[in-house]
Design brief:
Blueprint: H1 3-8, E1 11-12, E2 17-21, E3 32-34, E4 54-58, E5 68-72, E6 80-88, E7 95-102, E8 106-114, H2 123-126, E9 129-136, E10 139-146, E11 162-169, E12 177-186, E13 199-200, E14 207-208, H3 211-218, H4 230-247, E15 252-257, E16 266-272, H5 280-283, E17 292-295, E18 300-306, E19 316-325, E20 344-348, E21 362-364, E22 367-368, E23 389-391, E24 397-401, H6 403-410, E25 419-423, E26 429-433, E27 445-451
Antiparallel strand pairs: 1-2, 2-12, 3-6, 4-5, 5-12, 6-11, 7-10, 7-12, 8-9, 8-11, 13-14, 15-27, 16-18, 17-26, 18-25, 19-24, 19-27, 20-23, 20-25, 21-22
Length: 454
């Protein structure tokens, strides 16, 4: 039996830990190879032959013993190295851990395939593979995760024995190397508690755990929406402006809609961070040039940004409104905003994302979120933990009070990096009009009534 197979059988009784790969002997590389798909019909259409990865033992960055596995890449999208395993039952183990050393911020992942796992695309195939992706920082990273996270993203006895282990990297640079060492399994069931999330709600003294809690709090105030056209919504706001202008003679009205009166200040880009972790292709897609996409929950919604620089810093924001138009012909079954309460929120972004590059991993090329989908709210947050606007759906044409949001970006204390609009799942815009929508009046817009400070 080769050295690697022997290493794979090592148990550390005192720690309840089993070392899978420690990369100490030349024979430890013998069964590793670049992933090659023999039958494309049995794999996701987006899997392709990637540029080759060079595998070698290296004395650098060994976390145990004398050497580590050095992988040197030639570019590509998801280059992967793979190794068959003897058919084994991993159900007694609860955690996989590996030491990964990198030279820059990047994304590295591991995959475990069982006998009945599939490489096809779609939900069923994705949940048949155990995958762990990790944002790595320069230096040594301890990448770890539970093998039985939940019922649908886990090593599952129904899928048969474990048969294959893989290591991959997302969009490596040509000539770039990473080092992997001491891949191990553990029977320990302990895991990190998910971070507690709290979002402030301007205009109230509330702090909520998310849009679902806010929706429940405000559900008693729900009223069946009365359908409005865009012209009617804008007409109502203009009437409000006239009243404000009577009290504020210097008040001005600004309409921010891409293509209207030469304005070109909108940006929007949809991306999906839908689980499980194995949905790597879906998460890496960018939709920055789509005339319509869905708007749904936090893991399937767009980033939007509207250039408000026309409004002088320090202006008094008297009123503002965000308008969004559905392109769906009908409401989604079970998600009819005219039949039950719903809630939408506007969550401000803290990163200067790029419309044609942003996805669930990156806010710009090679610039990674701190958490998948930008869901890091701690130190150096991806998004600010505050809901700048909120409210129920109104039907085909939706609008929300946007005054707090405009104040947030025009008080001179921070840069405007836009926002994500997302909901509590009770409403689902299967399709909504983005800034590229051919009919100008249906594009998203922000209307602002303001009074300059001078």
């Amino acid at each position: 039996m080769r050295g690697l197979a022997l290493a794979a059988l090592l148990l550390v009784p005192d720690e309840g830990e089993r070392v899978l790969f420690d990369f100490e002997e030349a024979a430890d590389l013998a069964d590793w190879s670049n992933l090659a798909i023999e039958n494309p019909a049995e794999a996701d259409r987006r899997i392709r032959q990637e540029p080759p990865v060079r595998l070698e033992l290296s004395p650098e960055h060994a976390s145990s013993g004398r050497s580590s596995l050095k992988l040197t890449f030639s570019g590509g999208a998801w280059p992967t190295v793979t190794r068959a395993l003897p058919n084994e039952d991993w159900m007694p183990y609860h955690r996989l851990t590996a030491d990964v050393t990198v030279t820059r911020d990047c994304l590295v992942g591991f995959a475990v395939l069982q006998e009945k796992s599939s490489r096809k695309e779609g939900w069923d195939a994705a949940v048949s593979r155990w995958t762990k992706t990790a944002f790595c920082r320069p230096g040594r990273n301890v990448v770890t995760d539970l093998l039985h996270r939940n019922d649908w993203s886990a090593i599952n006895a129904k899928l048969g024995p474990v048969v294959r282990f893989e290591i991959f990297m997302y969009r490596p640079r040509p000539g770039e190397s990473i080092w992997v060492d001491r891949v191990r399994l553990s029977k320990a069931k302990d895991g990190e508690e998910p971070p507690k999330r709290e979002f402030k709600v301007p205009g109230t003294d509330w702090t909520v755990s998310g849009v679902q809690e806010l929706g429940k709090r405000l559900a008693p105030q729900w009223r069946k929406p009365e359908p409005r056209t865009v012209d009617e919504v804008e007409g109502e706001f203009r009437a409000q402006f006239e009243k404000l202008h009577a009290r504020h003679p210097k008040a001005r009205l600004a309409v921010f809609r891409d293509g209207e009166n030469g304005y070109q200040g909108w940006a929007d880009a949809y991306f999906s961070s839908h689980g499980p972790d194995g949905m790597t292709f879906d998460r890496s897609e960018n939709f920055g040039r789509s005339p319509s996409q869905e708007i749904f929950m936090r893991h399937r919604s767009p980033l939007m940004r509207v250039d408000l620089s026309k409004i002088p810093t320090g202006s008094k924001i008297l009123a503002a409104r965000l308008i969004l138009v559905r392109s769906d012909k009908e409401f989604a079954k079970g998600h009819d905003p005219e039949e039950k309460p719903s809630m939408w929120v506007v969550e401000p972004c803290a990163r200067p994302w790029v419309e044609t590059e942003v996805n669930a991993y990156e806010w710009a090329k090679d610039r990674f979120w701190r958490a998948i989908g930008g869901q890091h709210y701690g130190e150096d947050p991806d998004f600010w933990p505050v809901y700048l606007a909120y409210g129920q759906s109104q039907g085909k044409v939706c609008w929300w009070d946007f005054a707090e949001a405009v104040r947030f970006w025009t008080d001179g204390s921070r840069e405007n990096h836009g926002f994500m609009l997302h909901g509590d799942s009770h409403d689902w815009m299967g399709r909504a009009c983005y800034r590229e929508w051919p009919e100008l009046k249906s594009r998203p817009a922000v209307l602002v009534a303001y009074a300059p400070s001078d």
